[in-house]
Design a protein that fits this description.
The chain has 262 residues and is mainly β. The chain has two helices and 20 strands.
Length: 262
């Protein structure tokens, strides 16, 4: 076979054990296959060399690097359970009490959510020391120690607090959101992984179609859910390669298959 240059990555397809497509991504940044075969040495005599080797269990592994987060990745790698529905967010905002308009919470309108009733707490912030003084929620006509808030998050107080800085903690809810729940007893489910990509023929520069198939993989390792300023986060999905079932697609029961269109 012609020598090939590994340049670029393609698509990743993940299938459930029943054959249903579960995950598709065409913006992966790295796919690694590590095929590992170890021997146990049996030593003897004075030569310093082993006279017998016993084959150990295979320790094949694969990993995929994806530059963004998905609840499906949490399911595949960590056995998370995903749920669609209404969720609550904890929020903190800082602003100033305008003499005319007070202060209106920004997050609910920005993200298309709704303020959770009675979840708000308002504090006056001292401009010199940063000390926080909690105000009490009132139904109407607040004093200098009180505030009023409407259903859409508009906060007003007594004129004595005009132009003063406030800190507001509150909850707001959003419908049709996603919740990834990770139990302390979670167990990932096995799946089939197909990596379709192209390589370059080093002799003539032509594109060569290739495919990596892991017939039965199990997620594991560490799923990194982190955020760093001005730096994109890459999540690495670690896979354990398992002994697959014999199927019409895989009659010989191979664990991994690599094919090249050359």
């Amino acid at each position: 076979m012609e020598p090939l240059v590994f340049d670029g990555v393609g698509t990743v397809q993940v299938y459930e054990t029943g054959g249903k497509l579960k995950f598709l991504d065409d913006k992966i940044t790295k796919v690694t296959l590590q095929l590992q075969f170890d021997w146990q040495k049996v030593m003897g005599g004075d030569s310093g060399y082993a006279f017998h080797y016993t084959a150990q269990d295979l320790a094949d592994k694969a990993s995929i690097e994806i530059p963004r987060y998905s609840d499906i990745l949490a399911e595949l790698s960590q056995g998370a359970e995903s749920e669609k529905g209404t969720v609550n967010f904890d929020e903190t905002e800082q602003g100033f009490l305008d003499a005319t308009n007070g202060y209106t919470l920004k997050a609910p309108a920005k993200f298309g959510g709704t303020l959770v009733a009675a979840s708000d707490k308002v504090y006056l912030k001292d401009k010199d020391t940063g000390k926080l003084t909690e105000l009490t929620r009132a139904a109407a006509t607040p004093t200098a120690e009180q505030y009023v808030i409407t259903a859409n998050g508009k906060i007003t107080s007594d004129s004595a607090n005009d132009d003063k800085q406030i800190v507001v903690t509150f909850k707001w809810k959003k419908e049709n959101a996603t919740r990834s729940m990770l139990s302390g007893k979670r167990r990932p489910k096995p799946f089939k992984l197909v990596h379709r990509f192209s390589l370059v023929d080093d002799r003539d520069g032509k594109e060569v179609p290739c495919q990596l198939t892991i017939w039965k993989a199990l997620g594991g390792g560490t799923l990194d859910v982190s955020q760093e300023r001005k730096k994109p986060t890459s999540n690495t999905l670690s896979l354990e390669i398992m002994e697959p079932d014999i199927t019409p697609e895989n009659p010989n029961g191979y664990a991994v298959e690599i094919i090249f269109g050359i």
